[in-house]
């Protein structure tokens, strides 16, 4: 079996007594499309913040191409190919949706994972 492109193992994030992400483990292989669904307050945004380096996890490990990326900063992850597009109408109002998404690749080598 091939190695996953992206993997997280036991990733958790707590805000005081509240657990936003609880020991999540998942693997994504080349060509996979993974959906994350849940009600408001379920921890989806926190999860994307952890994956993209916007926030640091309290525990667990994350890997990109079998190399640890746990708690790396967002700018470093972008250069490795992980990027995040925030939920706004448009980053640059004069650009199309596709052009706005492409802007996230400016500082990276190529987009491996894009969190929308």
Short description:
The protein is an alpha+beta fold.
Report on this model:
There is one protein chain. The chain is of the alpha+beta class and 116 residues long. The chain has one domain (6-115): P-loop containing nucleotide triphosphate hydrolases (Rossmann fold). The chain contains three helices and six strands; from the N terminus they run E-E-H-E-E-H-E-H-E. A four-stranded antiparallel β-sheet has the order 2-1-3-4, with helices on one face. The longest helix has 9 residues, at 44-52. The two termini are 28 Å apart.
Kindly state the percentage of residues in helix: 10-25%
Number of DSSP strand runs: 6
- Give the distance, in angstroms, between the N- and C-terminal Cα atoms: 28 Å
General shape: globular
Oligomer: single chain
Radius of gyration: 14 Å
Helix/strand class:
alpha+beta
Biggest β-sheet: strands ordered side by side in the sheet: 2-1-3-4
Task: Please write out the topology.
Layout: E1 6-15, E2 18-28, H1 44-52, E3 59-64, E4 67-68, H2 74-80, E5 82-84, H3 97-103, E6 113-115
Parallel strand pairs: 5-6
Antiparallel strand pairs: 1-2, 1-3, 3-4
List keywords for this structure.
two-stranded parallel ribbon; alpha+beta; single chain; Rossmann fold; four-stranded antiparallel β-sheet; 116 residues; 3 helices
């Amino acid at each position: 079996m091939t190695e996953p492109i992206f993997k997280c193992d036991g990733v958790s994030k707590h805000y005081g007594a509240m657990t936003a992400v609880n020991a999540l483990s998942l693997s994504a292989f080349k060509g996979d499309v993974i959906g994350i669904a849940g009600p408001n307050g379920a921890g989806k945004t926190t999860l994307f913040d952890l994956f993209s380096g916007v926030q640091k996890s309290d525990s667990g490990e994350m890997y990109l191409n079998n190399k640890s990326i746990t708690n790396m900063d967002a700018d470093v992850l972008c250069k490795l190919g992980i990027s995040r597009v925030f939920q706004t109408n448009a980053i640059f109002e004069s650009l199309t949706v596709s052009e706005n998404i492409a802007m996230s690749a400016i500082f990276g080598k190529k987009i491996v994972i894009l969190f929308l």
